[in-house]
Amino acid sequence: MQMILQQAQKMQQQLQQAQAELAAAEVTGQAGNGLVEVTVTAGLEPRSVKIDPKVVDPEDVETLQDLVAGALTDAVRRAQELQQEKMGPLAGGMDMGGLGLPGA
């Protein structure tokens, strides 16, 4: 039982560390070969949008809108990958094999 408690404490510490790293992490998504960049936190809070002046055409607003949406989609995908990378190993839970506990 002591081993299970130690393992649970270790997992809790790892989870807290991963959450702290994710809170500070930012990812950037791109579209149009970098003409539009969107930076978000790993928690998907927007931080910045950068638009290359070359892509700003008053006659073609739809392309710019598509590029912003594409960059945002890319940023969200990257944030989700980062979350999986940091939290994935912890989501497996403790090794309860052989104890007859649910999830083992």
Automatic annotation (TrEMBL):
Top-rank taxon: Bacteria
Spans annotated as Disordered: 83-104
Composition skew (Gly residues), residue ranges: 90-104
Signal peptide (residue range): none
Compartments, as annotated in UniProt: Cytoplasm, Nucleoid
Keyword Coiled coil on entry: yes
TM spans (from-to): none
Coiled coil: 1-28
Keywords: Coiled coil, Cytoplasm, DNA-binding
Chief location category: cytoplasm
Family note: Belongs to the YbaB/EbfC family.
NCBIfam families named in the record: DNA_YbaB_EbfC
SUBUNIT field: Homodimer.
Cited function: Binds to DNA and alters its conformation. May be involved in regulation of gene expression, nucleoid organization and DNA protection.
Alphabetical list of PANTHER family matching this protein: NUCLEOID-ASSOCIATED PROTEIN YBAB (PTHR33449)
Record protein name field: Nucleoid-associated protein WIS52_11195
Organism: Pseudonocardia nematodicida
Lineage: Bacteria, Bacillati, Actinomycetota, Actinomycetes, Pseudonocardiales
